[in-house]
Amino acid sequence: MSTEPATGSSPVTVTPEAADQAVSLLESESMDTDIAGLRLFVQQGGCAGLSYGMRFDNEPEEDDAVVEMHGLRVFVDPASMNYIGGSTLDYEGGLQGAGFHVENPKATSQCGCGESFRT
Q1: Residue ranges with strand state E in the chain
Q2: Is residue 3 assigned to a domain?
Q3: Global pTM?
Q4: Inside any domain, residue 21
Q5: What is the pLDDT of residue 48?
Q6: Residue 4 has what pLDDT?
Q7: Using CA atoms, how far apart are residues 52 and 75, in angstroms rounded to an integer?
Q8: Domain total for the chain?
Q9: Which long-range contacts (CB under 8 A, 24 or more apart) does 46-51 make?
Q10: Quick one: pLDDT at residue 14?
Q11: Tens place of pLDDT per residue across the chain (119 aa)
Q12: What is the pLDDT of residue 7?
């Protein structure tokens, strides 16, 4: 398991808003935020071919990259890192609905709803 520093070059960047929301959700599930974290991954699916997935995990897997920013631990497996390395995880709220959003510089196109992408 590799732990990335909170500053400098990071495989995934987390905004303070995303970290606050995720930590709040982790705490509401009674998960230990010193060990548990948000898993960010890529899976086959969606109209553009690939889609983002997120879930809470109690701890990272052995080969995960672990990013710690703003009190949140983010776990990314090596295969997913190939697609989302350099991305930013943000949280957006508003009239259209609130939720987490991945800004991925490697995505060459996205479907209309923004749920899936192609590299």
Answers
A1: 2-4, 12-14, 37-44, 50-57, 65-69, 72-76, 87-92, 99-103, 109-110, 116-118
A2: no
A3: 0.81
A4: yes
A5: 57
A6: 44
A7: 13
A8: 1
A9: 46/111, 46/115, 46/116, 46/117, 47/111, 47/112, 47/116, 48/109, 48/110, 48/111, 48/116, 48/117, 48/118, 49/116, 49/117, 49/118, 50/83, 50/116, 50/117, 50/118, 50/119, 51/115, 51/116, 51/117
A10: 97
A11: 544 443 344 689 999 999 999 999 999 999 999 999 999 999 887 665 788 899 999 999 999 999 999 999 999 999 999 889 899 999 988 777 788 988 888 877 665 555 544 45
A12: 38
Calpha distance 8→25 (Å, rounded): 27
User: Where do the H-state alpha helices sit in the chain?
Assistant: 16-28, 78-84
State the pLDDT at residue 34: 96
In a domain, 1, yes or no: no
The two three-digit tokens of residue 52, written as one number: 């983002």
State how far the Cα of 56 lies from the Cα of 38, in Å rounded to an integer: 5
Asked if residues 114 and 73 have their Cβ atoms less than 8 Å apart, the reply is: no
Domain that holds residue 86: 12-118
Q: How far apart are CA 65 and CA 85, in angstroms?
A: 10
Which one-letter DSSP state was computed for residue 79?
H
